[in-house]
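Researcher: I'm comparing several assemblies side by side, and this is the next one on my list. It has 655 residues spread over two chains. Same procedure as the others: predict the full complex and return the structure.
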Amino acid sequence: MSRKQTPLRPYFEKMAEIGKELREGEVRRSQANVELVREQEEIIAKEILRVKNAGIPAEKIHQRGGMTIHDRLEYLVDAGTWSPLHSLYNPNDNVEGCTGVVNGIGKIEGKWAVIIGFDNKVMAGAWIAGQAENILMVTDMAKRLNVPLVWLTNCSGVKLMEQETVYAGRRSSGAPFYRHADLNHLGIPILNGIYGTNPAGGGYQGISPTILLAHDNANIAVGGAGIVGGMNPKGYIDEEAAQALIEGTKNFNGKAPGRVETHFDQTAYFREAHDTEQGVLDGIKDYMRMMPAYDPVMFRVAEPAEPRLAVEDLNLLLPANQKRPYDAIQILSRLTDNSEFMEYRPEYGREVFTGIAKIDGFPVAFIGNQQGVFPGYPDYANGEYPGVGGKHYREGLIKQGEFVTLCGRDNLPIVWLQDTTGIDVGDLAEEAELLALGQSLVYSIEQTELSMMCVVLRKGTAAAHYIMCGPQANNNNAFTLGTPLTEINVMHGETAAAASYARRLVKESEAGNDLAPTLEKMNQMIQDYKDKSQPAYCAKSGFVDEIVSLTDLRKYIQAFTGANYQNPKSITPVHQMLLPRIIKG
Amino acid sequence: MPELIAPIAGNVWKILVAVGDKVELDDELVILEALKMETPIYCDDAGTVTEIKVKEGDAVNEEDVLIVIG
């Protein structure tokens, strides 16, 4: 008789159950919290709708017989798997209201891919400010997760009136071509579905991926027809030149270069040409079926399972009032398979939890801040002050550093659940080596080859936001999510105002001057910090890659986990893992 | 008689009930402020508030009785 089982069954099949059901009273008193979460969700939803409607109306594209980027994604991506990123990203506050690309992670034909396309409603997919950075975040994600990058190219090239915002610099709109070369070099395929007119930058956007599939009306070229015919040697436009331009434009009937009859029939750059837009997407699906992907069974340690406790509880459990503590393990229990968790050193470094859980049956590490007050902790404070959740102390930093190092050894992807006010400060903290231990955690992260994702549940503050694998961990952080309750700033606004104006207040007070003007400045600063820490602002400025409803967090964690285990570059045989044995003792 | 105890030292920031109020399990009765954090204190038993031993602004120590419920 043949027998089969998942690996290290005694460790992984059934872990310790965490979390508990909410009592009636807890549910009752948290209803106001649910409303506060919904308020923020509505703000985000309105913003997302505004961005989706950017540019010309979708109906105009439809009247021309075309598809919008959203139609293309809808057709291409497996139902229920699309997890958008950078939806509100617009750091330069472009008049277009967006950066002109739509991207995220999703499955195509059952396989995870990072997917990005130009928004063809916005200046026919022009290069606009902030777009290159958006694209670089996406190419970095494909590199980090080692999954295919799928492009839906429809790029009219530089928005010529603002060329200085996209053309020059190390991370400008030409950089993605190098990233494409880098991905190809690393063996990460880039599939490119090409639509519309793609001159100059659009041409290199078209040519740089691995596999090119074109719509019959598409073209890619070094330059467009307008540039070919529009060279003017005078260096300025006078009446005569204007008349020539008018006549030239009226009489221009040339076709854009680089059409399908050139790049399919002549050069054969295009692997496929399709007479329908859907045909291109079907071609991408065909290629996605060829992409390398392990069967999940290869790496699963248990059957996938939903959390035992209701995910909807998250809206009740995470307080909108940033000054309120909560039970972080209750949050975790609504995210992991069966609400189970194998905790690493729970008695040491109480301000953070570390351990292994399962997501869709895959082993995944979690690290997060505990909340509340810890009397008698940290030891080095000698009772002068108690530990507070969200802060980092010596033991917690050591624990995180050693846990990350062991995760690197065991190839466990890490999900960080961040809600931090910073690292402890003062002479005692310095003597306790917190400065070095913070950087030591950064070093530990950088030393691994692991993919990590970060969720800023509420606060991301000071250096603690960096050291807990914030977006600054360029080589490891695949993406960072915010929630409707996220608030990211280098310090709280009131603290910043005090730091900035305390000396001035002393000076004005000693001089017997009116304090009102200084107080007004301080309060303006506090309001400014508040405005620029809100979830929508965090998403627009790139503090996070997306604001996600609390009830959607697990979906993103599943996407991250599934992508990570699709085609890993390094494998630790599960039966040779060390961490579960260390935890068991 | 059931008593509401301060779990940490801090200042009484808000008292959300008055003597004679009927309270239920898990109702929020008092909010302490300490270390820039609000610590809500919830009712462990249903009953009626018979005595409030502190007032807003008071400093309390860990284990101090805040409210008595009959």
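Model: For your comparison table: The CA atoms of residues 24 and 68 of chain B lie 13 Å apart.
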